[in-house]
Design brief:
About 25% of the residues lie in helices and about 30% in strands. With about 400 residues, the chain is α+β, with helices and mostly antiparallel strands. Helix 4 packs across helix 6.
Length: about 400
């Protein structure tokens, strides 16, 4: 039960027994969560938010196509203009994650399992609510685990043949070109994909990508949660759009990085080559789109809490080196460095003194090394001590 004390509303929605409690499908889960709520009143806000998100998105009794998800997402943004707009704006932070969970097998299993004739998912190919393991969920509903720390996924031009590491899988692609695929990469792992159009995508730890088996004739669209580096195949007649909760990134053919973790206050896009347009909503999520054009070695940054955004010149290596197993720091504050290490190694690192989080760090960290070695190198950059707790977590403190 202790592990749930640190859960956010998103974490609760990804917990199988929590969903069973919401759906009243498991009496043991109902007893557990009723007791948990009574014993942990401090988690009431997160649980209430999870319930509200759950109820808000519990709607269609069919598998969603990517076009329908985009349409629903736009509808959610539009509805934030209602009297309860401030609440829904805060919920929208989690909306994309919940859509992924719903559409890709987690919640859809629960909602559809009562009617097996109409259900594209089954217990054999979808483990509901379990997002601790890396996996790809194919267009036909089949869930395939990704065993390696750095998995490789490649589609052929038809979208029907998928090579996952060294295994070739044939998937059934429906007549609709927008039949969706979904890759889930938890903390501690990464993946690279080659999509059906030849575009290459590197997914960082703690990220998810939804995309069609084959793109339609007008536009290539994907949904991203987390961080990814893209090498987009140029097609002058078919733009490539990376949709995230705070912004859309539109390109024709280029290389760039997008970081849109739901638990990060900062959204950024860094351009290596080519040109991209970053489109954000003006006045929160209520008005039209504002477009920012990036050129090579530029970064667009958005502070989601304040709405402040700007474009400036950067050393792109500091932002894209993660895909090579390196973390290049150019006056990056300790808080952000530690957050990246937590994701990469799937370990919690507690900074005991908030002032330590403001230290600026410059240099290179080799992420292929053990986390202890990386913390030793970090200790050489700034005046800190570090240690390991009995529960496996790490901590950083002021030196004696």
């Amino acid at each position: 039960m202790n592990q749930f004390k640190t859960y956010s509303s998103t974490d609760f929605l990804n917990e199988e027994s929590f969903l069973q409690w919401l759906l009243k499908t498991n009496q043991e889960a109902e007893v557990f969560w009723e007791n948990f709520i009574m014993e942990n009143p401090d988690k009431k806000e997160e649980i209430d938010e999870a319930i509200e998100i759950f109820n808000y998105f519990r709607f269609k009794n069919e598998k969603l196509s990517i076009a329908e998800i985009f349409e629903m997402w736009d509808s959610v943004k539009h509805r934030t203009a209602a009297p309860r707009k401030n609440r829904f704006i805060s919920l929208l932070k989690y909306a994309a994650i919940f859509i992924f969970v719903f559409a890709s097998g987690g919640l859809s299993y629960y909602f559809y399992s009562k009617d097996k004739d109409c259900n594209e998912f089954s217990m054999a190919d979808t483990t509901p609510g379990d997002f601790s393991d890396a996996r790809i969920i194919l267009a036909d509903g089949k869930s395939v685990p990704l065993e390696s720390k750095e998995s490789n996924i490649k589609y052929d031009a038809s979208g029907e043949q998928v090579i996952i590491d060294n295994d070739t899988i044939q998937q059934q692609v429906s007549g609709k070109v927008n039949s969706t695929n979904h890759v889930i990469i938890p903390y501690g792992k990464s993946s690279n994909l080659t999509l059906s159009d030849g575009t290459k995508v590197w997914l960082n730890a703690g990220s998810q990508l939804m995309y069609p088996s084959v793109f339609d004739k007008k536009q290539r669209e994907v949904l991203l949660i987390g961080e990814a580096f893209f090498e987009v195949v140029k097609d002058a007649h078919k733009p490539f759009v990376v949709r995230t909760e705070p912004a859309d990134v539109v390109v024709l053919g280029t290389t760039f990085d997008v970081s849109a973790y739901p638990d990060d206050n900062i959204f950024h896009t860094v351009l290596v080559s080519g040109k991209v347009d970053v489109k954000i909503s003006e006045h929160g999520l209520l008005k039209g789109k504002k477009t920012n054009t990036l050129h090579p070695n530029e970064m667009f940054l958005l502070d989601r809490s304040s709405g402040v955004n700007y474009v400036n010149k950067v050393d792109v290596a500091s932002y894209v080196s993660w895909k090579e197993g390196m973390l290049n720091c150019d006056r990056l504050d300790m808080n952000r460095v530690v957050r990246r290490l937590e994701r990469y190694y799937n370990k919690r690192i507690h900074i005991k003194d908030p002032m330590l989080g403001t230290y600026k760090i410059s240099g290179k960290l080799d992420l292929k090394s053990d986390i202890a070695e990386v913390l030793d190198v970090l200790q050489a950059f700034v005046p800190i001590d570090w240690g390991k707790q009995q529960n496996g977590d790490y901590f950083i403190v002021q030196p004696n």
